[in-house]
Design brief:
The chain has 118 residues and is of the alpha/beta class. It has a five-stranded parallel sheet with strand order 4-3-2-1-5, with helices on both faces.
């Protein structure tokens, strides 16, 4: 079984990096169910994990994309110090997302077969 880590750094909206990273994660979940997909959100990408996002009709919604990845068994963690720096310490996060540490990210990097950075 292949272990794939997708590291996202950019905010959910404004660029399409988070969008494209989650498109890839969801396609992996669909086409390669045996692969273990891990998503780690850092820097401004920590805001991808905020629950109850509202976007205009016709626009992609990162919350929905992240929830789909989680239902396809992706593990999603966010950098705790990055989240705290952005005032997310007491913010409601998407169910299934865990606050994590650099130490855990380090373990994921070493344990993954592939690391993709967006």
């Amino acid at each position: 079984m292949s272990k794939i880590l997708i590291l996202i750094n950019d905010a959910p909206y404004g660029t399409e990096k988070a969008y494209n990273a989650l498109r890839l994660a969801n396609q992996l979940g669909k086409d390669h169910e045996a692969a273990e997909v891990r998503i780690f959100l850092m820097a401004d990408a920590t805001t991808c994990a905020i629950a109850n996002q509202t976007t205009p009709n016709g626009y992609y919604n990162i919350e929905r994309m992240l929830k789909l990845a989680i239902t396809k068994n992706a593990k999603v963690k966010i950098c705790g110090s990055c989240a705290e720096a952005r005032g997310l310490k007491n913010t409601l996060l998407i169910e299934g997302v865990e606050i994590s540490t650099m130490a855990e990210l380090t373990k994921w990097v070493v344990d993954s077969d592939k690391v993709l950075v967006f």
